[in-house]
Structures are given as structure tokens and as C-alpha cells.
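Quiz preparation item.
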């Protein structure tokens, strides 16, 4: 069997465009499997902490965006834009009204990093989905270690295997994606060569996959 198509995704849990990008990637992968069932795909998720300086307990969500955007009208317009984009591009419903805190995501990324090292791909996927839903749909606090451990347990992980990775002190997460925030997220890398930045359509992501496979095939012919 040929080497798997390796796809790396750089993201943060608090970025709605990352959730939208995840849905578009899922659509692109479904189309790839329909046309190239011979291709195995290996996904690797890298955490990028967009707001590493937030306190461990986070900050009030509404106050954060009011300071960031300058007025309540600007906040309403931005949130409406994101909701419309999420619904149109990915059929997603994002409920900003339920989000009480802008969390420090350092521990959430540490949790996923450890889970990826010990869990199955299906467990990691379930954990990703549950963490995104916790923030964008359920209004749960991703900065709270107890909440994170309960979410992980729901996905089949033993809390005892993860608890030592949670600091609970707001310490920034510096994983493989250190310094990646400057490139923007989501950020996709195909076969460690071809990069695509931003919340692109499924068509764009599928095109990148096909280009990566074509490049590999061409290199194989030259070998």
C-alpha cells in the first residue's frame, strides 16, 4: 500500500473559521474517498493558541469583543457575519449568546495533544468535535480543567491519563505550531509540502489534495 496522504491542520478551538474549515475538509475528504478509494489519509491536528496571554480563568466574552471591536454594533455585525458564513458554507449554527467566557485554550490544546498520543483516530475526532461543540454550541468553559476532563471522559479517555497534562495556570501552549499564529488559522499542509491558508471551500481543499497526490506520482515516476 502506498504511503498515506498526510494532512496537517493548524487551528484554535475559539476560531469559528477553524470549525468551518473542519467541515469543509470533511466534505473534501468524502469526495476524495469517492473518487480515490485507494488513498489512505492521515490527519494530524496542531494547536495554535491565538490568545496566549489570557488569564487562566479567561475573560468575559462580551467584554472581550466590545474592547476588541469598539462598539456593540460592530460586535453584532461581526457575529452576524460569522453566523451567516457558518450556515452558508458548512450548515453550522453558532450560538454566540451562550458563550460566557473567552477562554485560555492552553490546556485544551495540551489535552488534545496528549489524547492524540494515546487514543485512536476515532477518539481524537470525537474529542475534537466535542471541544468545538463545547465552545460554540454549549457555552462550556474550555479553560476549566475539570470541564476538559469530563469532555475527554465522554470520548472514551481515562481522566487519569490526561490530568497531568493540564496546568490550570494559564501557561501558554507551545506545541509543534509555535509561531504559526502569524500565518493565520485554519492552515492546512498537504504531504508536508503544499499549504493552504484560511477557511477555504471544499473544492479548494480537494484541489490541494489532488495536487499533492499528483506531485507524489510525478516524483515516483522520476525515481
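Solution:
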Amino acid at each position: 500500500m502506498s504511503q498515506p496522504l498526510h494532512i496537517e491542520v493548524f487551528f484554535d478551538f475559539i476560531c469559528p473559521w477553524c470549525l468551518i474549515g473542519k467541515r469543509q475538509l470533511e466534505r473534501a475528504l468524502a469526495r476524495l474517498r469517492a473518487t480515490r478509494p485507494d488513498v489512505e489519509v492521515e490527519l494530524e491536528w496542531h494547536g495554535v493558541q491565538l490568545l496566549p496571554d489570557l488569564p487562566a480563568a479567561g475573560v468575559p466574552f462580551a467584554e472581550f469583543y466590545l474592547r476588541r471591536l469598539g462598539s456593540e454594533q460592530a460586535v453584532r455585525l461581526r457575529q452576524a457575519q460569522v453566523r451567516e458564513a457558518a450556515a452558508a458554507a458548512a450548515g453550522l449554527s453558532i450560538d454566540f449568546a451562550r458563550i460566557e467566557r473567552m477562554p485560555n485554550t492552553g490546556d485544551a490544546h495540551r489535552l488534545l495533544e496528549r489524547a492524540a498520543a494515546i487514543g485512536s483516530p476515532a477518539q481524537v475526532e470525537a474529542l475534537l468535535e466535542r471541544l468545538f461543540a463545547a465552545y460554540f454550541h454549549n457555552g462550556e468553559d474550555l479553560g476549566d480543567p475539570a470541564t476538559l476532563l469530563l469532555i475527554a471522559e465522554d470520548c472514551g479517555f481515562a481522566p487519569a491519563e490526561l490530568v497531568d497534562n493540564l496546568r490550570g495556570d494559564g501557561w501558554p501552549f507551545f506545541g509543534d505550531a509555535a509561531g504559526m499564529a502569524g500565518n493565520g488559522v485554519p492552515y492546512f499542509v498537504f504531504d508536508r509540502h503544499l499549504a493552504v491558508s484560511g477557511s477555504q471551500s471544499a473544492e479548494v481543499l480537494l484541489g490541494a489534495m489532488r495536487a499533492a497526490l499528483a506531485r507524489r506520482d510525478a516524483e515516483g515516476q522520476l525515481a
